[in-house]
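User: Assemble these into one structure.

Assistant: Restating your components, then the assembled model:
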Amino acid sequence: MALFDQTATEHLKGLESGALKSVELTQTYLDRIRAVDNRVGAFLSVDADGALKRAEEIDERRAKKQRVGRLAGLPLAVKDILCERGKVTTCASRMLQQFRPPYDATVIAKLREADAVFVGRTNMDEFAMGGSTENSAFQVTRNPWDLERSPGGSSGGSAAAVAAGMAPLAIGTDTGGSIRQPAGLCGVVGMKPTYGRVSRFGLIAFASSLDQIGPFGQSVEDAALLLETIAGHDPRDTTSLDVPVPAYSQSVNKPLANLRIGWVREHFGGGLDKEVESAVRAAFEVYKSLGATLHEISLPHSKYAVATYYVIAPSEASSNLARYDGVHFGYRTDEKEMLAELAADRRRLETAGDKAGLEHLDSALVRMYRRTRAEGFGPEVKRRIMLGTYALSAGYYDAYYLKALKLRRLIRKDFDDAFGKVDLIAGPITPAPAFKIGEMSGDPLAMYLVDIYTVSANLAGIPGLCLPCGRSQAGLPIGLQLQAPALEEERLFCGARMFEQATDWDKGRAKL
Amino acid sequence: MSDYTTIVGLEVHVQLATASKLFCGCSTKFGAEPNTQTCPVCIGLPGTLPVMNRNAFQLALKTAVALNCEIPAYTKWDRKQYYYPDLPKNYQISQYDLPMSQHGYLDIGDPKGAFEPKRVRILRAHLEEDAGKSLHDEVAGKGDSLIDLNRTGTPLLEIVSEPDMRSPLEAKAFLTELKLLLTYIGVSDCNMQEGSLRVDANVNLHIDTAEGKVATPIIEIKNMNSFRAVERALEYEVGRQWCEWQETHRKLGDAPKQTRGWDDVAGVTRGQRSKEESSDYRYFPDPDLAPVTVGPQDAAAIRESLGELPAALRGRLESDFGLSAYDADVLVNQGSPVVTYFLDVAKFTGDPKAAANWVTQDVLRTLKESEHTIESLPVASSALAELIRKVKAGEVPSSRAREVFQTMVEKRVDVAAAMQSLGIAAVDEGELIALCQKLLAANPKTISDVRAGKLQAVGALIGQAKKQNPNVDPTRFRELCLELIEKAP
Amino acid sequence: MSISRRDNEKVALLGRLRLTEDELAIMTTELAQIVGYVDQLSEVDTDGIEPMAHAIEVANVFRADEVSPSLSREEALSNAPHRDERGYLVPAVLGE
Ligand SMILES: [Zn+2]
């Protein structure tokens, strides 16, 4: 097994024992990026010099027996959505192509304090809107298992980076499945924590009440280690929860006794790929063999989850993205052109004697806003801004936005009821394995429906984890999703680790 | 000729006196260089989040309680969305359907009786963030506006009255009383020049016609920079609406609500451009902020901490100190430091009437004519009390008391030193009797006049006595004269 | 509920987007499809259900009223697309 195929937990043992140097490890991953990323396209930027310098400095500190952080010397990739002081942070948008935040996201600060080595920033759907990473303004990311296929999204760059051995660990964000779905499609472990478990400060918002930052790794242990590092209360995020963070990496190997696993009747209806279904049902059998009991449960409102999500998320997004207007930061349209256009429009209307037209003519300022946003945003972002603006506008608020908030409570209540009977809920992560690049791009609604199994956890605020549980005949990874009650990440990790240890799906690596 | 009633409602924005902004740690101090009091949060940079300032909420709560508002148990924050360059997120964090307070009132009156005392209802008061400033003229000619975000995120309390005022004068009285209340409880400095208090007015007319009462379209007036400007703008607008009604007979609902700006120099209001879509603010609950719950005991504790409010204080000055309604009003309207000063003088002298006379006249005149505030006045309440005591004891002639007070102010000295510098010395009783006897002997007609009941004849003697000795206390001298005349054979 | 081209023009102005004729046509079709799907929410009886705006519902989170350092003006303005030494510049906003 190549060094880059090993897990972060294994690397850490080597680093701690002195058998492995961070410089060597970092160089290995940088070489791997150089070798394969021109085919995968996971990274938007790679900081080889910075990473090696940092690795060297950590090696020195470790050699001198100085205190080092929890992830000391481990290379790590970060989704290009977390602000890092002085570093270009683009959100894969033309709007932020030049944006250098004057501050660090809390998670970036925690990772730096943990002595992780930032190797680069990963591609994503623009502003995290999408499930294929095709909505990036800059490049397409490919699935390392089949370069014709999508890695999923929106954290497709981070998932692909880990799957292709370009980083042992990566950070993603999950608003409607954006960590778990690409983890499933790329055959790695990805986890969305409880809403509020990880600080959102410095995470460029898509939908504030749904966004959560979470880990990617090659194993459940790795994901546990990374979550443990980034979790915790942050006074700068009102929605972050002031509760202790368990030592997940310590407890992850304790199997759960008398585990009750729920499977959701509604998850196995039409639309679920047969190969996916059989892999997931096989996973249930594995759990039975480990002493768990399986229980059929119902989440009666789950069929409304996608509709609910596609009202709430775009509504919040339309508001969160209003700040991209070319005034205080980010892209601005060419002003000379804009003013010339205004003058020409005015002349044309004056010549035509069109008084009403003149009255409704956009002013220079409104024109600047509209041109800036038309040029700075891609089509999916515009579509969601339109959808959200519509859902919040006068006359539609009650029928759409308010209705969706009520459905959200019903969806949450379904989970509360279910978790009265079972400890974990298990099921598919996507209706089918990785789709072909371009396959969905003409049909936004079909793309949205891929989120059917993931959005509920975001709406309810509960944690969810995806780990590999099989492979299709075409050799594509199939993911198993586990969900737990709010703040029960520990249970989620332990339950996932039981499966991982009983099977070999985590050992598989994409051939590149 | 038909008759009409003026209907006025006010919307007041008050900056709360916090040290830091509503959602970040930037200073709220006024007057800094543009864009030197901003941070990622108040610039609205991507990824930033608001965290609410506890003190801002407490000050808002305090004001709401002082305005007799109901305090709902649950309140939340909403985003009000509109695009403007001085609003960097392009939404303002405000409150929509569940404000932190509602249904209060403020009583107003006029001690000179210009209108009947009345209760103006408060519809609601809610907490929100201020926007920055757009500076147009400073870069004149360049065709650009400069945006300064120093003020962005300063906590504001928006207080909305019901349309209960019936004249520009009542509107001004409401604002004066509101400002007084806010400064009494210390929630804002209410400095209109610095923009800590801003007023918009809604006004229309209810006209009696043959067909019954008809309302004219409601006009919102903006850009009024003083209470006097509010009064003038409303006076102008009432006249303008009356004329417009006679010309057009346009009623409420015939046209969308219009906004007019007050031009203080020209003394007119002017129509402002309104956008048809501008009113669709797309409010929705801010997902970044937690709601706030307020228990009945919290509101009670705030009420407890408020101290005596102006209306109650006026009543107490009248009932406990025997002041006239007018004097009580004058004192209370000066603000609580002046009232405290008065209360001290009254306590030290045991003579509230004399204390009120001194404070409402000499002290307030001095404050008005000098740079002094009550805190910087060189005559402390104890010193004024001493002066009053000496006047009463005849040690300072009442005719010269004002002179002594002025000297105490100008030379920053106590009563004794002021008296010395003015050459005022108490005249010995024996000396006074001798002088009295001497003057009576020289003016026998005075004696007969007094005996005939013309007591005022003594006045002439007082004049002569003061000529001979300026320190003679006229009151005591008069008493002595009358005594001696009575005793004389 | 259907969504017309005219609605979309209005919504685009509210959201300060500019759509070309083609984009507007595509957007109208796509949004109609999505809104059509979302309309299924209306079949659920939600009478008496409290709206849920936050994923995890907490209350009363405050910070102390303490001044912390602001950015230097240069840092604050460093990302501005158009500025002078004192602030952000935009096309004149008079009369907006
Ligand atoms: Zn700030």
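Residues B 21, 24, 26, 38-39, 41-42, 153 surround zinc ion (CB under 6 Å).
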